[in-house]
Design a protein that fits this description.
Layout: H1 8-22, H2 30-42, H3 61-73, H4 80-95, H5 98-109, E1 115-118, E2 134-137, E3 144-154, E4 161-169, E5 176-184, E6 190-194, E7 205-215, E8 220-221, H6 228-263, E9 265-266, E10 269-270, H7 275-303, H8 307-336, H9 348-359, H10 364-375
Parallel strand pairs: 1-4, 2-4
Antiparallel strand pairs: 2-3, 3-7, 4-5, 5-8, 6-7, 9-10
Helix pairs in contact: 1-3, 3-6, 4-5, 4-6, 6-7, 6-8, 6-9, 7-8, 8-9, 8-10
């Protein structure tokens, strides 16, 4: 029943975050966005999923997703919540050394530091098995040396370090296995180049180049032989949080459309009284609610330690939320007509932003492949 009916504690958290978010007018200003992040962190919202022993709230992805959804529903989504506490914080808290936990988790929780996440490569795309960023150990010094490229890495310019997914050569098998490394932003050989995006967002996207970046032995997070287990410990929360991001955005767009439909009068009747306006908005609301249920299921499974079950549910939640978000935004814009494309109402920019929930961090087509193969047992197409 926990996935169907929210506890009183969760209801109170939702109300508190919603009230907090409403006190911050929506803005695309980087300084205001930073201030919002820091104030949310002081209230314990940013690090709510991180261990209490290291300054966090001791809760889980369930609570962190709730926070992001409510911030988004107020028009104040914080994209880096998907990356810094959800992916990086989770991976470090589950697999990091005690030194890494002491060094990073308190500052990730209190908002004084952020961490980005680099996995996607120009020639790998959604196929994480083809990652070519290579990490080799210098036998003389014990240091790791990283070489490779990453693309579509969010917020590198405001992050203090980036959790980079590389691969080490296994001398016994010759196979390449994924490993995760903490790369400080000022590491020699670590270069970033902004990608020119037609996306109106505070958090910018970057291409990264790692040219023989030398890192101490302690930069490796977890076991170099653990492979995909560690990687998906971060990717499943990423999918849950992306679902929360999409649901929040969809709710924000829908709320703007509902206000307009109640107030806008044509021939002495509010346009919301007409079924051609009302029914599509009702359908968008239903789709968002259904996506939230799957998101909550995925989060609960992950927090309960069911990585396999969480993987299936997280992919489904991300798919459902992406589709619901796009539909809600499109319907909101159409409800406002020409006003939906004006800067005053702030909906037109969501037409592009809502596609992010469909595309990243994994496309809807790859999710359908996953469900076809893993859930339905159909043969692979690749």
């Amino acid at each position: 029943m926990t996935t169907l009916i929210e506890s009183e504690e969760h209801k109170s958290l939702r109300e508190a975050v919603a009230a907090f978010a409403q006190t911050h007018p929506h803005t695309l200003n980087a300084e205001d966005n930073k201030r919002l992040w820091q104030e949310a962190a002081k209230l314990g919202y940013i690090g709510v999923n991180l261990p209490e022993a290291h300054g966090g709230g001791g809760a889980g992805i369930t609570e962190l997703a709730l926070v992001l959804e409510e911030l988004g529903a107020a028009g104040n989504p914080l994209l880096m919540m998907i990356v810094s506490p959800a992916i990086c914080g989770t991976v470090i808290s589950r697999f990091g050394t005690e030194e890494q936990k002491r060094d990073w988790l308190p500052s990730l929780a209190d908002g004084t530091r952020l961490m980005a996440f680099g996995i996607t490569e120009p020639d790998a795309g959604s196929n994480s098995h083809r990652i070519t960023t290579t990490a080799r150990r210098d036998a003389a010094t014990g240091e790791w040396v990283l070489t490779g490229r990453k693309v579509f890495v969010s917020g590198v310019d405001i992050a203090d370090a980036t959790l980079i997914v590389g691969r080490t050569e296994d001398a016994r098998t010759g196979k390449l296995k994924p490993c995760l490394f903490i790369v400080p932003r000022d590491a020699p050989g670590f270069e970033r180049r902004p990608i020119d995006m037609e996306l109106n967002a505070v958090e910018r996207q970057f291409e990264l180049t790692l040219d023989d970046v030398r890192l101490p032995a302690g930069a490796l997070v977890g076991d170099e032989d653990a492979g995909l287990l560690q990687l998906f410990a971060g990717l499943n929360p990423e999918r849950v949080m992306t679902a929360a991001f999409g649901i929040g955005m969809g709710r924000y767009a829908l709320s703007r459309a509902l206000d307009y439909a109640r107030e806008r009068t044509v021939w002495k009747t509010p346009i919301g009284a007409h079924q051609a306006i009302a029914h599509p908005l009702a359908q968008a609301h239903i789709d968002l609610e259904l996506a939230r249920l799957m998101m909550q299921k995925a989060a609960h499974l992950y927090d309960a330690g069911d990585d396999i079950g969480a993987g299936e549910a997280a992919n489904m939640a991300k798919y459902a939320a992406g589709e619901a978000c796009v539909k809600a935004v499109d319907q909101a814009v159409h409800t406002l007509g020409g006003n939906g494309l004006t800067r005053e109402y702030g909906l037109a920019r969501l037409i592009t932003a809502s596609r992010v929930a469909r595309i990243a961090p994994v496309s809807r087509e790859m999710i359908l492949n996953y469900v076809s193969h893993q859930t339905l047992g159909l043969p692979k197409s690749y």
